[in-house]
Amino acid sequence: MTDRVLAIDGGNSKTAVALVDVEGRVLARVLGPGASPQNVGLERSLEVFDGLVREAARQAGLGAGESIAAHTAAYLAGADLPREEDELRAAVEARGWSATSVVGNDTFALLRAGTADGIGVAVVCGAGINCVAVAPDGRTHRFPALGRISGDWGGGGHIGSEALWLAARAEDGRGEPTALLDAVTAHYGTATVAEAVQRLHFEEVEFDPHALCPLLFEVAAGGDAVARSVVDRLVEEVVLLAHVSLSRLELLGEPVDVVLGGGVLTGTGGVVVDAVAARLGAVAPAARVRVVDVPPVVGAALLGLDVVGARPGAESKLRAAYEAVAAEVVAGR
Question: What is the pLDDT of residue 328?
Fold first, then answer.
């Protein structure tokens, strides 16, 4: 039996795999494409994961027949319901990477990455939006996070679509004037939004709503009231997710962490984060709002180490390793 943990953070846009030992040493790190089962199907998803896992094993110097890890901690986008978690866990176990496995939603990895004990609330806003919460006694609260059919509002694709929707209505008179109109036409290189819409309709250009999301934040930062209303709505939604979760777990008055992550939240500086902290403070004054400072795969690895029993100092060693990587990336820019 090996003392290694295999950690997988499977997001919509990228997949991160780490192989760590109980001392907190990182034996291998591998990045690959997003492979959410909801987007590419279960079989293709596991093919991508398996390729990355085998590469991690190779990097760590493991032989072809050698056991990769004692435990696999896979936290995946698309593992939104217990049925999906069960199916994914069975598929992961069938790969034979380790003796035991846990599969959960990737937002739990974000929560563990942003806290010392995995207790509190995590809200992620990247391709989509989701929230999970864990109480000190182990109770959890989560949302289905299946998009608009389960009541969700937010995510990069949703916000980008709003930018196009608002620009189209501003041009044809159904909406309020907004600088989004000029920003959208510049993005598509067209004279009008109507021309851009036609090109999208005939699939002459690819519709990538995620690419329009940063554009909306830029226009909002310039003082545009229409774009700003979308940013305000996102802040409202993040606060609402956290508030409901804290309330359901009876933690509104407790000093717990509220961890924010995902490209949409972390990529906007203090525009969203500061507003969330201010509004949430009115209903949960003891809550500590923070932005995660290490990748969620660190949280997946820590959840795995919690299971197998990490050695003292393992968590700080693991975090330091990824903080050093982040510093190298910044220095290299």
Answer: 58
